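## Example record

The block below lists the input lines for one assembly entry, exactly as stored, with component labels intact.
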Amino acid sequence: MTMPSQDTLLHKQPLWYYIKNNPRAFSLGMFFLLLTNVLDGIYPLIMKVAIDQIEQQASLSDLARTCLLFFAIMASLAATRLTWRIQFGKFHTFAAEHIRQKLFRHITSLGPNYFNKNPVGELMSLMTNDVQSFRQAIGPGMLILADGFIIMAVVLPIMASMSWSWTWKTLIFLPLVPLLIWKVMKLIHLHYKNQQDRFSELTGVAQETVGGIRVIKSFAQENHRTSLFNSVSSAFEKACNKVAQQDAYFIPVMEFGVASGSVILLFVAKDDLFTGAVSIGTFVAFHRYIQKMVWPMTALGMGFSFFQKGYASFDRIKEVLKTESDIQDTGKITIEKFESLEFRNVSFRHLASPHQILKNVSFKLRAGESLGIMGPVGAGKTTLLNLIVRLYPLEQGQILVNGHSIEDITVESLRRTFLLVPQEAYLFSESVFENVSFGLGEPATTDEVQRMTDIVDLSHEINQLPHKFESQLGERGVNLSGGQKQRLTIARGLIVRTPVLMLDDSLSAVDTKTEQAIESELSRTHTSMTRIIVAHRLSSLKNIDKLLILKDGVVEAWGSYQEVLKVSPTFQKIVQIQGEGAAHE
Amino acid sequence: MSNFMNEDLVKANITYATLFKRLWPYARRHKLLLFSAIFAVAGTAIVARMIPFLVGYVIDHGIKGQNYQVFAMVAYGYLTLEILRACFSFLHVFLFQLFGNRMLFHLRDDLMSHVQRLPMQFFNKTPNGRIVTRLTNDVMSLGELFTEGVISVFTQFIVIVSVVVALSLISWKLTIISLLLAPVFIAASFYLSNKIREILREQKKKLSFINAFLAENLNGIKVVQLYNRVTRNRQKFAKLSDEYLETNMRSIKAYALMQPIMNLFNAVTISSALYFGGLLNSQNVIGIGALVAFLMNIQDFIPPLREILEKYQQFQNSLTSAERIFTLMDETPEAELSGVQLHENLKLRGQLEIKGLDFRYEEHLPLVLKKINLQISSGESIALIGRTGSGKSTFISLLQRFYDAPTETIFVDGHPLESIPREQIRHHVGVVQQDNFIFRGTISENIGLGDPKITPEQILYACQKTGYMDLLLRTGRNINSPVDERGSNLSVGERQLIAFARILAFNPDILILDEATANIDSESEHIIQEATREVTKGRTSIIIAHRLSTIEQCDRVVVLQQGEVMEVGTHEQLLAKKGLYHQFASVGLKTLIAEADEPVVP
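Predicted C-alpha cells for the full assembly:
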C-alpha cells in the first residue's frame, strides 16, 4: 500500500514521483545520455582534423592516428547508447506497470454504479491506451526532450566557436521547426482520433453483419449490406488519407530548417572558402553540425507533443484513481451465519433516474424460511437482491441482517453469507472446473465439482466436451448453450455453500424437469441453506415458505401462497395464465 | 478444434511471392497512383544523392579550382534540390498511402461480399469475433504491412542502392574497401532483428492476455465482487502485468542492442573511408571534394538499413494477418448447381412436397432426417413438434437452402428446390427465428432492413397489423425511434414483434416460425399471439411450436423424433391417438403447457 502523501505526489507530479521511486535507473540513464551526446558532438571535429590533414597532405601515420581516434569515439558511442536506452527503458516500463496495477486495484473496488456510467470499453482503453501514452510521455517523450536539449547544449557552442556569424545566419529558421512539428503532430493526433472513430463504426457494421448473418441471408440482403459496409469503409478510407497527408508533411517540415541552413551556409561561406580563410575540413564539419540540428529541433516538437498527450491521459487516469467507491467498506461486524433478514421501509432509485424502483419495502425473513419473489418486469426484484449484497448504496430505509445494519457488516462477510447468482450467466474463459470452483478460497476437489454439476444435471453434457471438466470456455474454447451456461452458474453458486443462496431468475432457461431435479437435490443436500428465488414460473417456486409480490416497486403482497393468492391481483393473474394450459389436459 | 484454438500461434506459411500475387489484382486497379508513387521515391533518392555531389563539386572546382562563379551556381542548385526533395518526400509518403488505402477498400469490399455468401456451417463453427477481426483489424494490419512494410522496405532499398551507386561513381575502390565488413554487420543485425521479432510476438501475446483478462474481469466485475474474488484476481493481474513488464524489458534491451551494431558499422566504414580516402588522395586518385562527397554519402548508408531491419519485423508479424485474410477468402461460398438460373417472375402459391428426404450434414455423420414424406398444401399451417435434436431446425434450414437437400426431394409448387437460386427462394420463404437479430438504427430500418424495395407504407402497415404500432404509441415512440445495438433497449417480446413485422413487410409465400421459448411478459405475450395469427393468415406456415395455444391454431401437427416423422394429424386426432404427441403434450413440452399441471406448493 502506498502512503496517502505519496498518492498526492503521484497525482501532482507523476514524473517526479517515479524519479523518486527509481532514482538509479533515471540518473544512470541521464548520465549516459549526456555522455553519448558529448561524444556525438565531438566526432565531426575529429573528422574535420582528418580532412584537413588529407588536404594538407599530412603523413599517413598522422592520418592513421586520427582515424583510430575517430573509431574509438564512435565505438564508445555504441556502448553509451546501449546503456542509456536500457536504463531509461527500466524507468518508464516500471512506471507504466505500476500505474496499470494501481488502476486495476482501484477499479475493481468500485461498485456497479461506476460501471453503469463508464462502459468497459472506455475503461479498457484507459488501462491500455492511456497508460501507454503516459508511458510515452515520461519515457520516450522526456527522453527525446532531454536528448534534444543536450545535443543543442553540446553542438551550439562548438558551432559558435567555429564561426559565430555562420552559426546565427545558418540557424535563423531553425526555431520554426519545433513549432511546425508540434503543429503537425497535433493535426496527426486529431485526424487519427477521427480515423479511430471511423474504424469503430466499421467494426460496428461488420459485427452486426456477421452477428445478423442469418437474417441477412434469410431476406437476401447481402448486396445491400455490402454497400452499407462500403459506405462506412469509404469514410474510414478518407479519414486514413487525412492522417496520411499530415504524416507526409512530417519529413519535409523536419528537414526544412536544416535544408535552409545548408543553403545559407553556401552563400555565407563562399568568400571565406574562396580565399582560403576557412579550411575545407571546417566547412565540412560545420555542414555536418547543421545536419545534426535536425534531430534536436524535431525532438523538441515531438517531445512536447508526447508530453501533451501523456498528461491528458494522466488526467484521465487520475480522475479514475480519485473516484471513491460508493460502497464504503467501513463495517466492523463479521457475520458467520444467517439468523434474519429485515427490510425496513427501503426506497431506492438509481442514480440520475427520477423513477423510484423500490418504494417503502418492508418484510422480515427468518433463518430456515425460503423466499420467492415474483412480479412483472421492472418491479424491482433484481434491485432488491442487489441491495442485500451491497452492490448499490442504500438511500432510504434500512436493511438489517441478524439485527445489524448491513453498512456495519464487513462487505466480505456479508457476501460470504449471501450469495447472489445473477440473472445473466457470466462465465470466464477458464476451464469448466475452474469456473465451478470460482468462488472457493481453496481449490475444490474433483468429487465436489462433479457433485454440483450432477445436481444441475450438467455432468453428462460436460463429459461429452473434448476435455471434459478441463475444457476451456469462451471464444477460444467451447461454446455452451444459454441453458448450459445458466446451470453452470448455479453449480458455481451451490458449491460455495453460503448460508443464503439467492437466485435471480437463474432458472429461466432450465427446463422444468431439471428444475425439479435441482429443487429436490437442494432440499436434500443443502438443508440448512436459505433460498431467495426470483422467478417467473410458478414451478420454480416449489417448496417456498414465503412469497413477496412486487409491483412497480411496491410490496403488493407478502406471506404464504394462500395468503398472497387472496390479496394480490398480479399473482392471481400469473396463476390464471400459467394455469390456463392445465384446463386443456 | 485444437487448430482453431492455437490459431495465433501458427506461424505464417505465406510467402512474399504469394502475397504479391494475391495483392496484385487490387494493385493493378490503381496503376497510375502506384507508378506516381514509385516515381516520387526514385526522385527523392536521386535528389538526395545529388546534394553530396554538389558539395564535392564546390570543393573541387570552387575552392580548389578557384572559380568564384561555381559558388553561386552551386548554392542555387542546392536550393533547388532541397525544394525538390521536400516535394518528392511529401509525395512519396502521401501517394503510397493513398494507393494502399484504396487497395484496402477494395479488399474489404471483396471480403465482405464473400463472407456474406459463405454457408451457414462456416458461421456455426467460427466465432463471430474472429470473422469481424478478419474484416477489420486484419485488413488494417495488412495495410500496415503494406505501407509500413512493403513501401518502406522498397523505398529504403532504393535509397541504399542509390547510395552504393553514388559511392561507386565517386570511387569504386574506396567503396569496396569501406563496405568490406558490411556483410558481417548486416548479418548480425538480421540475426538480432529476428530475435526482436520473436520478442515482439511474445510481447503482443502477453498484451493480449492482459486485455482479455481485463475485458473479462471488468465485464464480469459483479460476479468477481459477489464471489469475493477481487483480491485473488488482483494478484492474477499483477502477475500478468509483471510478465508483460519482463517481455517489455527484453524488447527494449534487444532494440537497444540494434543501435550499437549500427554505430560500430558506422565507425568502421567512416574510419576506413577516411584513412584509405586519404591514401588515395595522396596518390591523386581522388580529389578532396570527391572524398568529402564520399563521406557524406556513406553516412547515408546506415539509416535506411536500420529502417529496413526495423520494418522487416513488422512485416513478418503482419504476414499472419495476410494469411488469415487469404484463408478466409479461400473458403468456398454457397454454390448453385450448374445451369440454375433466376426464374423470371416466379410466383409461388406455397405448396410444398417432400419426397423421401434423407439428410446428413457430412458424409461420415449419421442421418439427421430420415425418409421424410410430407405434403403441405398452399395456405396450410403446420405445427412441427419434437425434442431438441429431433431435426426440426435442420428441416427448416433446408427449406431456406442454408444446407442443400439431396436433389429432387423437396418441391415447391412442383419446382425442385435446388432449381431455384438461393437468393430467390429466400425471397419466397421467410423465417422468424427464436432470437431474432436486431440491428442498430431505427425500428423502421429493422423491419425493412434498409431494402429499397420495401416502402415506408409497407413498414407502417406491417407495424399496425402485428399490433406493434399500438405498443409503440402507448410507450410514446414511433417507427423511427432509435434501436440500440442488438436491440438492447427493446424487450424480448418487442424483438419478436419486429421479426413478425419484417415478415409482413417482405410478404413471403411460405413462413417458417420458430416460436420463442424465452420468458415474455404477459402483455407482449398476448400481442404476439395475435401477431402470429396475423402473419400465418393465408400463408403456408411451418411453426416450431412450444405453446399449446399456438399448436391449436395450426391446421395439422407433425411430430418428429430422431429425424423421422412419427405422427401427422390435427391436434385432436393426435391427442385421441394417445401416442407420442399425447406424451409430449403432457410432459415433454418445455414451457407452459407442461408446467400448468404442476401444483404450486403453498
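The mean pLDDT of chain A is 82. Chain A has two domains: 7-321, 340-583.
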